[in-house]
Fold:
Amino acid sequence: MNQFLEVAIDAAREAGALLRVEFDRPKKISYKGEVDIVTESDRRSEEIVVGRLRRHFPQHEIVAEEGSGGPTGKARYRWHVDPLDGTTNFAHGYPCFGVSIGLLEDGEPIVGVVLNPVTGEMFSAVRGEGAYLDHKRIHVSQIDTLATSLLVTGFPPDQRSQQTNIAFYAGFTLRTHGVRRDGSAALDLCGVASGRFEAFWEFGLKSWDTAAGVLLVKEAGGMVTDFSGKPYHPGDREMLASNGKIHSEMQAVAADIGEQTAKR
Structure:
């Protein structure tokens, strides 16, 4: 297990060093959809990570956002790679983006690494061994009421025409200390794991967005489910990650918001 973690950390550091240098340079941007952008830095970062993973673990499958991982089948081990989580931020010069690398064994997260290239913060976790920030153990917050909680969420750019999260954003904003939108699901989940946020929710995330972060939250003592309370698996339609203490309250509020939205 430690070999998996060490390779993931080294890959994240190498890719992060590239992104940190290219962050200060003019960006070459293209579009995967109407508003979903991709940069050359996304592709170069992915080549670094995927190349290192292939060299060390040629029998493992790789699912990468920009498609360089190749076809998938029924391998026991599968890496999920987001080489630049927060591309829109990166392209606009907003310093909030990360490299996310998660390893699943038979569909369950067992290793997770997320690097913030700007701050240098390295979040890591191995199943059953806790979650860490730069080798220091981290834990979710102890706040136990939604009213005193700080939340974070996101809005997938490829779902602009059917954005279901607006109502939830408004509803949770009125019931909490506030809701942040930082534009990087991987770092948002790290924020929950490290106690900076009490909870995170979002719709339509891909497996590479969450494979590492899910493990970090769980290993830090938190909970990750869908809105109904069923276990969340990377790639599921909806996610609710919290410190555990406000989880049921958030589920109740989400159910109420969903019901009110359906009546409109």
Summary: The first strand starts at residue 29 and ends at 31. The chain has seven helices and 14 strands. Helices lie at 2-23, 40-56, 87-92, 165-173, 185-193, 207-219, 247-263.
